[in-house]
Write a structure and sequence with these properties.
binds zinc ion; 2 domains; five-stranded antiparallel β-sheet; two-stranded antiparallel sheet; alpha+beta; about 25% helix; elongated; about 120 residues
Length: about 120
């Protein structure tokens, strides 16, 4: 990803209704921005060609894969995909930051949520 791709992503996100503010008071939003829409949260960096990134968390507070070209529907769909079986539908948190369907949660939770874990 390039700085230009990050900036284009931000422009498209804001046009799609995301609010934006600088992440840090001493740095402009085109270098480091925090964006929000409908419970989704994004952090962007475009400081140099080696310091570029876009991270998005869904309304379930779990990480969402970000397409290089801004696409709201792809990100929303990403919050509905089971990490184990790939089913698309209702998902729940599993382990520290996983996302899966309720059926896979029953099957896998004992392996990733050890004694002392609270969910
Ligand atoms: Zn599943």
């Amino acid at each position: 990803m390039t700085e230009e791709q990050v900036l284009r992503w931000i422009i498209n996100a804001v046009a799609d209704g995301w609010t934006i503010e600088p992440t840090y008071p001493h740095e402009s939003a085109d270098k480091a921005a925090s964006l929000d829409k409908e419970g989704y949260h994004a952090l962007t960096l475009a400081r140099s060609e080696l310091d570029v990134s876009i991270s998005v968390w869904g309304s379930d507070e779990l990480h969402v894969d970000v397409p290089e070209t801004y696409d709201w529907d792809v990100m929303v769909r990403g919050t509905r995909i089971c990490m184990y079986c790939g089913a698309v539908g209702n998902t729940v948190r599993i382990g520290f930051a996983g996302r899966c369907c309720p059926e896979c949660r029953e099957e896998h939770k004992a392996k990733v949520e050890f004694s002392g874990w609270t969910s």
